[in-house]
Amino acid sequence: MNDAVRSTALKALSQAEQNLHWLDGHAPGIAKWLVEQQFGDDVPGDNGASSPM
């Protein structure tokens, strides 16, 4: 693996770790917002996909 590829891969790994850390810290707030927006366990409608043509 050449240096440029290795450097890019390490930067991507570092960013992914930062993203996971951010998500871990903000998960309670995100979960609360999702519940407030009613993104619960309900199955969404099919928007008429099963309607006969």
UniProtKB/TrEMBL annotation:
Domain of life where this protein originates: Eukaryota
Protein name listed in UniProt: AGAP003695-PA-like protein
